[in-house]
Design a protein that fits this description.
The chain is an alpha/beta fold. The chain has helices at residues 15-30, 59-70, 87-95, 120-131, 156-177, 190-193, and strands at 2-7, 35-40, 73-79, 105-112, 135-136, 141-144, 148-149, 152-153. Residues 1-145 form the NADPH-dependent FMN reductase-like domain.
Length: 195
């Protein structure tokens, strides 16, 4: 299983990327055999979507599209600006093919400066991911500035919610897409889920 973290932040070592890293760590604890990777959009020189077929993009743009298509599950995170996800993340969703997320499991994370933007997950990200026909894991996580000290996540409640999210993404993806071997859990063969 390939679990991809996608950070829509354009700032160096952002809180969004820190939180996504944490979820990926928890997912690896749940199932050490999974492959994890994070795409921080600030590290890629992406072309702006111009309406062409996604297969015609090149360089970093082609690489990011390919990584998203090849992922089995994703953790998607964004800082919230003006009540919505970043323009950089919007560009990625404009670039990928319409079926790039179809049937995949997606966990959602947002970060912001205050409590005021927590509904961006509900009103912005969930409808977007629903358009792509992906499975959204319940328990999305919103973290704001008071949950951090410097660049370290310190809030135990948020940390616990991130743990649940990482575990649930791994379990859900395994149940719909393959064998599950988790911490202290028996393997669930895929065929058994359909009997």
């Amino acid at each position: 299983m390939k679990l991809l973290g996608l950070s829509g932040s354009m700032t160096p070592r952002s809180k969004t990327t820190i939180v996504i890293d944490k979820v990926l760590e928890f997912a690896k604890v749940e199932n050490p055999s999974i492959e994890t990777e994070i795409i921080s959009l600030r590290d890629y020189d992406l072309q702006f979507c111009d309406g062409r077929d996604p297969t015609y993009y090149e360089n970093d743009t082609k690489q990011v599209i390919k990584k998203i298509e090849e992922a089995d599950a994703l953790i998607i995170g964004t800082p919230v600006y003006r009540g919505s996800y970043t323009g950089a993340l919007k560009n990625v969703f404009d670039l990928i093919p319409n079926d790039a997320l179809k049937g995949k499991v997606v966990g959602l994370i947002a970060t912001g400066g205050t409590y005021h933007h927590f509904l961006a997950i509900e009103h912005q990200l969930k409808p977007l991911i629903g358009f792509f026909r992906a499975h959204i894991v319940p328990g999305s996580v919103y973290a704001h500035n008071r949950h951090f000290s410097e660049k370290t996540l310190v809030d135990p409640e948020v940390m616990e919610r991130l743990r649940y999210l990482g575990e649930d993404v791994v379990k859900f993806q395994a149940q719909i897409g393959g064998d599950y071997v988790g911490a202290g859990s028996p393997s669930i063969p895929r065929r058994a889920l359909h009997e």
